[in-house]
Amino acid sequence: MRARVFVTLKPSVFDPQGKTIADALHSLGYGGVEDVRQGKYFELDLATTEAAQAKKLAAEVADKLLANPVIESYRIEID
Amino acid sequence: MKFAVVVFPGSNCDHDAYHAAKDVLGQQAEYIWHKDTDLKGADVVILPGGFAHGDYLRTGAMARFSPVMKEVQAFAAKGGPVLGICNGFQVLLEAGMLPGAMLRNRGLKFLCEHVHIRVEQTDTPFTAACRRGQVLRIPIAHGDGNYFAEPEVIAKLEANRQVVFRYTNANGEVTDEANPNGSAAAIAGLCNEGRNVVGLMPHPERACESVLGSADGLAIFESVVQTIKSGALVARA
């Protein structure tokens, strides 16, 4: 199965990269883009065929390595 | 006394730290490869600057899983003095040995310049020979040095006097302009609750000889030599 893990900075954490991208978009005339948050995206190819097991494994590696819980949160999609 | 300088693949300030300990201070020093599981009788452990494991994913994120880190954690748990410099500080944060995390510098640029830091606490093994309020001129070299912790964590750090160094101007005043990277509470370095584990972003090992532009970093190395020799810390790897 494939797990998709989206890691983003927590809402309380300032994202200087997202802010710079938002500023760039504004200067390109995209005033309608109010804010940008930059994050990381991981695709994990998993040996299991069980969705529940895939989600559990993806959460385990996200907790252990992919995300830093002090500044980041994540969500997982399985397909 | 003996310094252990941990070498991760991608460390690049290990030689500077070794040189400061061995040649400038005249102490024993030994490199410890990150796969080693023995700190070889060291009295103090240094996690040096650099880009451990390439700093892929996040700074310090993979180094915390290097085999040697188990020994470093056991040594710290016994009260042994551990100093994390720059990337070494980032490793200590990722390993949970110090609270908080590093974000990209607020100006997004990699910064390589001399800054001023004020010694806030002198009851750590790495500041015992300093004066409270002493201003040190020491270089920084980092892209991710913007210290972050939730406000309640910062409040606890302040209450426990765990903020060891703060970015200031040359007069020792905390100002926004003197904060190079946007760190919360202008934090340049902090210690754990046991006060034996200290991390800082500036590089004292690059400021131990006046020919390098500043010898202010010596105070940090001299502090730990003095602390160990006085017998205040008896942990040994």
Describe, in plain words, how this protein is organized in 3D:
The complex is a heterodimer of chains A (79) and B (237). Chain A is an alpha+beta fold and 79 residues long. Chain A has one domain (2-78): Phosphoribosylformylglycinamidine synthase subunit PurS (Mth169, Chain: A). Chain A is 35% helix and 28% strand. Chain A is built from two helices and three strands. A three-stranded antiparallel beta sheet of chain A has the order 2-1-3. The mean pLDDT of chain A is 96. Chain B is of the alpha/beta class. Chain B has one domain (2-229): Class I glutamine amidotransferase (GATase) domain (Rossmann fold). Chain B is built from five helices and eleven strands. Chain B has helices spanning 14-24, 68-77, 87-94, 151-159, 218-229, and strands spanning 2-7, 28-33, 44-47, 82-85, 101-103, 111-119, 135-142, 146-148, 163-168, 187-191, 197-200. In chain B, the strands form two sheets. Chain B has a nine-stranded mixed beta sheet with strand order 2-1-3-4-11-10-9-6-7, with helices on both faces. In chain B, strands 5-8 form a two-stranded antiparallel ribbon. In chain B, α2 (68-77) links the parallel β3 (44-47) and β4 (82-85). The model of chain B has no long low-confidence stretch (mean pLDDT 96). Classes of the chains: A alpha+beta (79), B alpha/beta (237).
